[in-house]
Amino acid sequence: MVVRKTFHCNNQILEWEWASDNDLIPYPFFTSCYLIDGLLIDSSAPGGENDLRDFVKSLNHDQMVDQCFITHTHEDHAGGAHMLNNEFGIPIFAGRKAVDLLKKGKKYPEYRQVAWGPELLPVQATIVDKPITTKSKKYRLELFPMIGHAPELVALIEKKQQWAFVADAVQPKYKMIFGKNSDIQEDISLIYQSLSDLYDFTEYMEELLIFSAGNGVLHGREIILKKMEEIDNLWVKAHEFNDKFHQEGYSGKKLMKKIIKNLFSRESIIGKLTQNDLSRENLIISLLKWKKK
After folding, report:
1. pLDDT truncated to tens, each residue of the chain (293 aa)?
2. Considering only CA atoms, which of 108, 71, 96 is closest in space to residue 214?
3. Which of 58, 143, 261, 287 yields a CA-CA distance of 20 to 30 A from 6?
4. DSSP one-letter string for 22-75
């Protein structure tokens, strides 16, 4: 397994990253947990349970985890919650929409097990719907829903420090999404709306830091605008290509192949490996369903 630790903001935040070293994976897919004053944001993947256990045991008294908040219930974020609660007695908190899902646990497709390990074990979490205060009372993190990647996804924002912990709500590049027969159904229009809401909410935060899951730290509110512009451009091109090739007589799968070729050159290898659960085709379908006013 591959583990990385990175300190941010003068050691106020510790990022703990985990990725599988399975030979079937061409390069590591990292997922991140963030530890801030005893609050652990997310709990890595089921396959990282042993490494997460070692990490928690390695912490000194001042760093020790005293609560864990799960941003959303995908296995690469909620995978260690059962172990943290069962072995260390660490209370697990989540937004209202996530708690019932966490109780059920989840099995997921084999291709995701290769990256994230076995099934997600059920865990009893407590609903939190007000700002979270860390153990020293130094930090106060507000809950901020960011649907689109997952309907239950809640980001945490520390206004005073200008920190936003967004999990998978902000991506470095929008080139594919989950859809088709997957249990994960992403919606690019809702992702865009969440980005717009985040941009409005962080007004006057000129030094905003956006902490993502496995994609590093993004600097500045202008990043949010760039992500929105990226999605806007994809929307325009997808609709233009769809209209153009439809007028030329293309339809169905042939039409989709033409749009993919002109927008991305080809479907991704990941799309083929996941039987299009995670693919560029899904992104195009979502873009075309999105009817802007």
Report:
1. 899 999 999 999 999 999 998 877 777 789 999 999 999 999 999 999 999 999 999 999 888 999 999 999 999 999 999 999 999 999 999 999 999 999 999 999 999 999 999 999 999 999 999 999 999 999 999 999 999 999 999 999 999 999 999 999 999 899 999 999 999 999 999 999 999 999 999 999 999 999 999 888 999 999 999 999 999 999 999 999 999 999 999 999 999 999 999 999 999 988 888 989 999 999 999 999 998 76
2. 71
3. 143
4. -TTSSS---EEEEEETTEEE----GGGHHHHHHHHHH--TTT---EEEES--SH
Q: What is the rounded (10 degree) CA torsion for 149, 129, 134, 208?
A: 50
Flag whether the pTM goes above 0.90. Answer: yes
In CATH terms, 2-230 corresponds, of 3.60.15.10, 3.30.950.10, 3.40.50.1820, 3.40.1080.10, to: 3.60.15.10
Partners of residue 210 on adjacent β-strands:
164, 218
Give the span between the Cα atoms of 5 and 44, in whole angstroms: 13
